[in-house]
């Protein structure tokens, strides 16, 4: 879709020339045997970035999340998360289907979590109720408009989890954006969570891949769960090399995507459809009170060469990324403001 300005997602990026070169020259081996040196290097690098003992490369963010949840919630027991969390919204019931995990949610508030509300929901052992075993949060929050959970809130949630003796998991698909937006070191995020999943193909520009991060004991178990779920891979160093290149070259530049999102948000704000302020690279649109619904908006924009993501009948989203340059943002602003004005 070279002729389109594609704002549907930051997963639509294509590998850069440097990334393709890294992939082409990657040293490889059989990862099921633990013999792919590039995968091993990627796993060690990511574990160190977050201050954990180990990490495991997985084909997708959904698989990484579901592996992590199975590490911290036994079958028939409970996960707490928010009603818009990716793990219960976009992973097609995998927690229940694969992990036998029961889930209960607090009302969707994006990144604006109240730790006291979460604490009050935790069910202890006994009383013939399903016991809570873990809390999951999303950093940044996808359906929350790319919102960043404040470090102070995460620290409070860590205390809530410790007090209740439950685990805390981070769906960190876009945690790199939180790191760049708020300047919080990755290792500081890492020390707050028992498990994390982090994605290389959202924003960082790799064609595929996420990692589960945790203790050595957890990651040893994670390897077995990954194999059970069909995620055992062979000479996958060609993909891990793309991830290593992304970590080396594409993290700091996320600030450029934030600036582009802010430009989009500023241009659209006068039309009254901006759901929240653009904190990172996501610009959420609430069309509840607007003449056009989300599908009509997307169709009108597409007819003029701009692709918009539809998240619901009256909910749309714009996402900036490395494959949309300043000229693309200018074109998107021109088209979207014309469509919204019509």
From TrEMBL:
The modification N6-(pyridoxal phosphate)lysine is found at residue 202. It comes from Micromonospora krabiensis. InterPro entries: ArAA_b-elim_lyase/Thr_aldolase (IPR001597), Low_specificity_L-TA-like (IPR023603), PyrdxlP-dep_Trfase (IPR015424), PyrdxlP-dep_Trfase_major (IPR015421), PyrdxlP-dep_Trfase_small (IPR015422). Keywords: Lyase, Pyridoxal phosphate. One of its GO terms (biological process) is L-threonine catabolic process. This is L-threonine aldolase. One of its GO terms (molecular function) is L-allo-threonine aldolase activity. Signal peptide: none annotated. Residues 6-281 form the Aromatic amino acid beta-eliminating lyase/threonine aldolase domain. Coiled coil: none annotated. Its cofactor is pyridoxal 5'-phosphate. The keyword Cell division does not apply. Belongs to the threonine aldolase family. One of its GO terms (cellular component) is cytosol. It comes from the Bacteria. The keyword GTP-binding does not apply.
């Amino acid at each position: 879709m070279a002729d389109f300005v594609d704002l549907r997602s930051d997963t639509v990026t294509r590998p850069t020339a440097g990334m393709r070169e890294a992939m082409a020259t990657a040293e490889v081996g059989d990862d099921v045997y633990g013999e792919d040196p590039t995968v091993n290097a990627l796993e060690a690098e990511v574990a160190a970035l977050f201050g954990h003992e180990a990490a495991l490369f997985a084909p997708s963010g959904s698989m990484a999340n579901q592996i992590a949840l199975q590490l911290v919630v036994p079958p028939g027991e409970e996960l707490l998360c928010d009603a818009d969390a990716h793990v219960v919204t976009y992973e097609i019931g995998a927690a229940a289907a694969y992990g036998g995990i029961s889930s209960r949610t607090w009302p969707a508030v994006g990144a604006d979590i109240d730790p006291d509300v979460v604490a009050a929901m935790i069910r202890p052992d006994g009383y013939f109720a399903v016991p809570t075993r873990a809390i999951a949060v999303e950093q940044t929050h996808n359906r929350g408009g790319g919102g960043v959970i404040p470090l102070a809130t995460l620290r409070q949630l860590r205390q809530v989890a410790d007090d209740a003796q439950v685990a805390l998991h981070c769906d960190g698909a876009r945690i790199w954006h939180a790191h760049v937006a708020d300047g919080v070191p990755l290792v500081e995020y890492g020390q707050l969570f028992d498990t994390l999943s982090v994605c290389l193909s959202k924003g960082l520009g790799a064609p595929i891949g996420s990692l589960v991060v945790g203790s050595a004991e957890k990651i040893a178990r994670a390897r077995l769960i990954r194999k059970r779920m069909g995620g055992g891979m062979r000479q996958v160093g060609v993909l891990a090399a793309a991830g290593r290149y992304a970590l080396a070259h594409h993290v700091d530049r996320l600030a450029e995507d934030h600036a582009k999102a802010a430009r989009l948000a500023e241009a659209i704000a006068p039309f009254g459809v901006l759901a929240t302020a653009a904190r990172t690279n996501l610009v959420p649109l609430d069309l509840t009170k607007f003449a056009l619904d989300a599908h009509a908006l997307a169709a009108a924009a597409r007819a003029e060469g701009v692709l918009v993501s539809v998240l619901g009948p009256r909910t749309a989203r714009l996402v900036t990324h490395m494959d949309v340059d300043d000229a693309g943002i200018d074109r998107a602003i021109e088209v979207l403001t014309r469509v919204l004005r019509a």
